[in-house]
Amino acid sequence: TLRYFDGRAEGTRPFCLLDYFPQDYLMVIDESHVTLPQVHAMFGGDRARKENLVEYGFRLPAAKDNRPLRFEEFEQLVGTTIYVSATPADYELMKSEGVIVEQLIRPTGLVDPPLEVRITDNQIDDLLEEIDKRVRNDDKILVTTITKRMAEELSKYFDRVGVRNRYIHSDIDTLERVQILEDLRAGMFDVLIGVNLLREGLDLPEVALVAILDADKEGFLRNVRSITQIAGRAARHSNGNVILYADHCTDSMRYAIEQSNRRRRKTDAL
């Protein structure tokens, strides 16, 4: 394997693209709140696979050293870094040591979509009314649920009442997911339903409404970062709106709404 050609000792890291950069290079990490955890996890995923291959004789033991960087090795190779994220994680906030710059003016010139809280009583009937308003204008809707079962049941119910929808889930591969999004943009259907609804980097200018069901079920899918990211999917539309269906306002909801209103006030003032 490469370790023999490189003359490296067992356990030492492989050479990588970062070794070819000059000492004073600038690293820009986009969507850092998800990119860094992925970098963190790469070594463990690779090692778990290689352990089995080596144990059963399909690879030489040296294969373990033809691997991704450990996170601490990655950190040693990184110098000046800009972390770009609408919802930076604790790691980036700690590393930046308080040097934070806010980009409030979007390249599109649009302001943040307003966030509105509505009670869960008759929430599906209320949602159907909101969907009907958007469909009349040929706009699209994203609906995010907290469980896979609820997403499936909601999709079936929408089928019965004549709402053109698709349900996206974790078993769908990347190519099919891309096709579903293209079909949404092309007008093949109007409502896209999902659980962890494609938060980061989903650019759908046709989406005028994002509905977040069970917004008050505090947890990973409804923490302040998740709510902010999901709400951001409506920010590409000039009349974008976000509705959070909940029976009470959690700290995450309150903070997300306060921050959105703060950004809207600043953007409106400019």
Automatic annotation (TrEMBL):
Ranges annotated as spanning the membrane: none
Protein name (Swiss-Prot/TrEMBL): Excinuclease ABC, B subunit
Ranges in a coiled coil: none
InterPro entries linked to this entry: Helicase_C-like, P-loop_NTPase, UvrB, UvrB_YAD/RRR_dom
Domain Helicase C-terminal intervals: 123-270
A GO cellular component annotation in the UniProt record: excinuclease repair complex
One Gene Ontology biological process: nucleotide-excision repair
A single MF term (Gene Ontology): DNA binding
Signal peptide: none
Species, as recorded: human gut metagenome
Alphabetized Gene3D superfamilies for the sequence: P-loop containing nucleotide triphosphate hydrolases
